Amino acid sequence: MPQDTTRVAVDIGGTFTDLVAVRDGGLTLAKASTTPSNFAGGVLDAVEKGDLSLASVDQFVHGTTVVINAITERTGEATALLTTEGFRDVLDVTRANRPDMFNYQYEKPEPFVPRRHRWEVPERVDQAGEPIQPLDEDAVREAAREIRDAGFDTVAVSYLHSYENPEHERRTRELVEEVHPDAYVTLSHELTKEYREYERTNTAVLNSYVRPIADEYLDTLAGQLGERGFDGNTYAMKSNAGTASFAEARRRPVEMVESGPVGGVYGSAHVGRQLGEPDVVSFDMGGTTAKTSVVQDGEVTIDTDYWLESSPRDEGYPLKIPVVDIVEIGAGGGSIAWVDRGGSINVGPKSSGADPGPACYGRGGTEPTVTDANLLTGRLNPDYFLGGDMSLDVDAAETALEPLADAFDTSVREAAHGVLRVVNSNMANALKQVSIRRGHDPRDFVMVASGGAGPLHAGTLGRELGVKETVVPRAPGQFSAWGMLMTDLRKDFARTHVLPFDADTADEVAGIVAELEAEARDAYATEDVDEDDLVLERSVDLRYAGQEHTVNTPLGDGPVDASEVTSTIERFHERHERTYNFRLDDPCEVVNVRLTASAPMPKPEVESVVTDGDPADAIKDTREVDFATEGVHDARVYERDALPTDTRIDGPAVVEEPACTTLVHPGQTLSVDTFGHLHIS
């Protein structure tokens, strides 16, 4: 793809839909309200606000919450499961590991496919992939008829050890299609070729559960874009920090489960590289949720054992796919404050969303939210929200917070501070979960804060966490969409093959690597990607013999021979010690061989933005801002785009831009670098 193409990225959030377009070397930003009843409507509204001619757009990258919403709200399609005879209850057995052993009211998560919707099929292969019992084709046909007659249009197939030999699953799809040709059929081995039966089965189930919804949504969006003249390439943001074609995303929608937030993490890693800071804490606070992740040595942390809806009290649901390691909580500008039975203030996870939104939006919302609290403490300008496109109603915010104030016999202003303290505490805990609790020293990290609400809270959170400094990048309100434009096409391949990892098995490992590389090239052959452009990264999941858990360790680019195995083992020892604080002299085992295949995409040129001038010319106003324990101050209000390079501002101060507001506390200093990023220290 030529470098002078027009590229657009759109990220659907719970409250707003963000657009970033790169054309003629410039950046176009737009923000529109999300339309929950028809997400494509919000996308098209953002395109219209950006004044874009879709006929001139060559590349469209899309991050969506359609998949995660369908799962969390339980609005997916009723699914049938075909599994090996004797393994009907794998979704009920789960891992049998209660996260909170002292919770006597503990209940296992309810499976997405109830037991009555699961069919057993006589068939069996062993762990080496050798057939033990042939597939009973008549049983498959009979099950398919029952599934069809029961009204199921989505079918997940997960057979024991199909990751090693998938022939029975492939034949099952052929048989199901003979009987029920309109069914959506998901085969577990097409999503992952790793072992662990429960995780693999649940991944296949969730893919089937959301597939009709994602298929219809992406098809509708592509059609509406086409009606408006778009004839370029469409890509969906995946949870592995890469992108895939809409066609692939429709087949494997579960890979989009963290589609939107990943763009912000990837963008934070890029900002860190710009600044020469390889260790970054990414913090993104939007209208509905707050997301955080850690970037180490310039690399986004990706986990292949991801659990949806997990918490200290609930294990959640596993996904055996590569997902950027993100902690997400219900803490956004629209998060609703409420009082629990114990008389304490809580914030979230319920949100006012885009419709009706916070009370101050004036769209019928009546419950107190974080945005209402920020408005009543002077941190938001009621006349400059979304650059003045929307006026905020101060009286409505006060009315919404009055019941909260009455409950504690205090003023509305103090109630607003209570809301802000609670939401900041919740977000600080999430930040500590990805940093301190995982052995990282925050003083070695910078925090990149984005999202429409992130920079409002970043000064407080950066100080609480103790990071080196807090950075607010350019276009923070559309930062996740911007991050999507920095990504590449990416596919991940893995193969479970447990064997000793030493010089004697080097040839066997090399053979698996060669098979994965061939599979990757075949996968890209239909996507107009030059084979010479593919970037292949190889790694192995290693463990000490007798251990359960593994440490992912990179393989070198050269031949996988005895010398490379020796070098890889030493890297494993180092990584194991860094992760678990010890190493052993025991022999090593390989569990999984992995390959990441990426194809570079054109990206926005991020150049220095050196501007001259007097910082005083950027002052718009002076506004009274209540900083709670730091007192009430008359803070100067600056227009961000008017701030010259190398400006230094002592807090208290407020920096405004159309999609975001940055708050600088008393005792903090803000500076502007040559890329236009804001630094709070």
From TrEMBL:
Residues 7-179 form the Hydantoinase/oxoprolinase N-terminal domain. InterPro entries: ACX-like_C, ATPase_NBD, Hydant_A_N, Hydantoinase_A, Oxoprolinase-like. It comes from the Archaea. Signal peptide: none annotated. Pfam families: Hydant_A_C, Hydant_A_N, Hydantoinase_A. Residues 505-680 form the Acetophenone carboxylase-like C-terminal domain. Residues 200-492 form the Hydantoinase A/oxoprolinase domain. This is Hydantoinase/oxoprolinase family protein.
